Amino acid sequence: MTAILGAIGRPVLEALAAVGRVGLFTAQVLGHILRPPYYLREFGLALLQIGWLSLPVVGLTAIFTGGALALQIYAGGARFNAESVVPSIVAIGMTRELGPVLGGLMVAARVASSIAAEIGTMKVTEQIDALVTLSTNPLKYLAVPRVVAATIAMPVLVAVGDAIGIMGGWLVGIMRLDFNSATYLKNTADFLEVWDVGSGLVKGAVFGFIVALMGCYHGMNSARGAQGVGRATKSAVVSASVLILASNYVLTEIFFTS
Amino acid sequence: MIELRDVHKRFGQNRVLQGVNLTIASGTSMVIIGGSGTGKSVLLKCILGLVRPDSGTITLDGQDVTKGDRDAFLSRFGMLFQGGALFDSLKVWENVAFRLIRGANALPKAQAREVAIEKLRRVGLKPETADLYPAELSGGMQKRVGLARAIAAEPEIIFFDEPTTGLDPIMAGVINDLIREIVVEMGATAMTITHDMSSVRAIADNVAMLHGGVIRWTGPVSELDATPDPYVQQFIHGRAEGPIESIR
Asked: Which residue is closest to A134 within chain B, CA to CA?
């Protein structure tokens, strides 16, 4: 009996301890965001790495998703003569859900892994210790610029992804589904509300924060050696992805069911 | 003066430091020797506050190192890490001038670059090296850049963690001479960890041997060869037979 309880209790305690560690790490990062010094060069580089260089992958994801969404809604809508809803559903679907979530997942794969690998390598090669001996707080120098940059860059990426995704739906609509271009665009504009876009951008900011935070947390806690860095990288992507999907549900509840 | 009194540190079941007592007088060069995994690097990291000891006290000029202004404390130190620990994303001169271009007393970039180039020259590297990235340098050059970074802010105390490991004998000799010159010229207090006996003889004023979590022997380098301590004798002559187990 005690063995069974132990087998259940140990992972539960480990999970709770991990939640505590992540919570403490988050509080420390937030605390450092509010206090100078600020490392603007590192922030600029992080903005470039996370924002600008993620544009191609977010754009490609969005255009194919928008196109596929248009085809699916058209095929599904045909069952009850509702093909005309394609433009509005594509726009709402992209801005509220698919733009931020798929964009967030793609950025998680690209950015969380790269941050965790970079910081993890810095840890195992004693670069983090070197930062401390040079009177530089590693959280302030490494984590804060990345977390702030991702939180700012991600809504911009989501906005660009939304536009490209809607364009993907429009292209499929006029080239494959015989929609009139002007009508398609008019339907998109008429049915889309500001909050549809705004809620997606807020989600983007939250997802950006999660992605960079998980990359930094797992990098800073990387075990020694190549295997340790590899494990940190994998954990960063997995935890960022799961947290994005979980927080997406919570945010959707908050935004749209009240 | 750095003083360690009854310092203990364990990692899980592994009791690494079990009551270390050691005094390093100002302006002297102390070399710590001992087998791999005996806690030499941990000892050094305890002094710097990178690792928190479980018990015991470490003082610098009578002040507990865990108390007071941490930035002011760290500004007195320079450290050469075993692998160099250079920042890959920064150019060589930015690595060397890292401390000079940050903080309350930051120098203008152009001036910091000049200082960095001067320090690079001091460790035998050409000014052209300044604009390279660490990955473009050989192991020996990286060590020298690490050395230039350690002395850039002219610290009072410099730590060297295995400064010659992985270098060929000639480069190791160059690094040893540089360390000795820098310590003498700057009048700095130095603490070096090494397995390399030629380094010990080139760098040390005093030597301490760490074994079994305690300082087994300490004394002037001139007395190292004459000491009857069997642990020291086995270590300095590299014998497989003796009180130190070869399988640890």
From this structure: B99
